[in-house]
Amino acid sequence: MQLHAAVSEAPSNPSRSDRRWVRHALELLEAEAGRSGWTPLLPFRVKGLEGVDLYLKDESLHPTGSLKHRLARSLFMHGLCNGDIRRGTTIIEASSGSTAVSEAYFAQILDLPFVAVLPRATSPEKIALIRRFGGGVHVVDDPTEVVGTAQGLAEGGDGYFMDQFTYASQATDWRRDNIASELFGQMSRERHPIPDWVVVGAGTGGTSTCIARHARYQGIGSNIAVVDPEGSAFYEGWRRKDTGFVTCTPSRIEGIGRTRVEPSFVPNLIDEMIQVADGASVAAMRWASDLLGRRVGPSTGTNLWGALQLAVRMSASSRQGSIVTLICDTGDRYASTYYDDDWVTGRGIDPAPWVKTLDRFRLGGAPAAPAA
């Protein structure tokens, strides 16, 4: 009697139609993954560093224009398979923009409502893209309040808070079919097939965690370096071995840097962290755009500056090898911000001191290691 009572009082399982919808949603996401394919790995020639081969994996060529395309798909799959996302569920996310753009795209594919909670400083171009994909936008003045606001909206309106900052490292399959497996597979026929360094930034910490875990899983000896903009909590948290570290200075490099060490960031997997000045990030972003013939975003500048530091260090010790970093997103979404001199000056960012160092690279010199 007690057993029957317990069974009869248990919550009912989702209906078959709910499960059919979830299966259909997963099939749509898998089909999109097949269409998206791999992103290219581009050699990036630097005259002053002949012994070190530098590569850029171009994540800006995803359908939503950024590295976050992969994460957004994984987060939707995670929510669907956990039973958190069902037909009609409103998806809510806290973001600095790019993840929200990608999630709005996937929400549109699945015919789900989507709302992004963004800091007011988010570029107008990103906000326009979110709306183009059918998403709603909720702007907050204090960037430290985006997560709490998103949680509140989800709880108050029967929505699902996607929470990239917590689930990025859990939702991504680091064993196979990810950015790391692509990257190392593409490098396999290059002159130095095992990169000495893979250099990435940290917004959630999910990318560095995925690449580091995959490298360990496959027995690949590459070192993982994380670059962090000034004022962000990741660098100080890693340096102090304090995963609870919090700072009050929000990052001025959109897309990376946080005021707290996020749960998806795993410091034990990182071989080195490099703190990069905001002026260096902007200078390297524009320098790379000139060399590539198309615009890249500011977090790509941060990545490149860190990669150049490591390359100069290798060159100074007469060590040959390879370094891989990422083009995180297209620079078109920053036309009115980081590519606008008045906007940059108004934020107190001065790229000029770092432009001189990069000009020496352009002329084929062998400069000393650029200062952060």
Characterize the structure shown:
The structure is a single chain. By secondary structure, the protein is an alpha/beta fold. The protein folds into 2 domains: 220 residues, Rossmann fold; 99 residues, Rossmann fold. The protein contains 14 helices and 10 strands. The radius of gyration is 21 Å and the shape is globular. The N and C termini lie far apart (71 Å).
Keywords:
alpha/beta; Rossmann fold; 2 domains; 6-stranded mixed beta sheet; 4-stranded parallel beta sheet; 14 helices
Structure, briefly:
It is built from 14 helices and ten strands. With 372 residues, the protein is of the alpha/beta class. Helix 3 crosses helix 4, helix 4 (98-109) packs parallel to helix 5 and helix 11 (278-292) crosses helix 12 (298-316).
Layout of secondary structure:
Elements: H1 2-9, H2 16-36, E1 41-43, E2 52-58, H3 68-81, E3 90-94, H4 98-109, E4 114-119, H5 124-132, E5 136-140, H6 146-156, E6 159-161, H7 164-171, H8 179-187, E7 197-201, H9 206-218, E8 223-229, H10 233-240, E9 272-276, H11 278-292, H12 298-316, E10 321-327, H13 341-346, H14 352-362
Parallel strand pairs: 2-10, 3-4, 3-6, 4-5, 7-8, 7-10, 8-9
Antiparallel strand pairs: 1-2
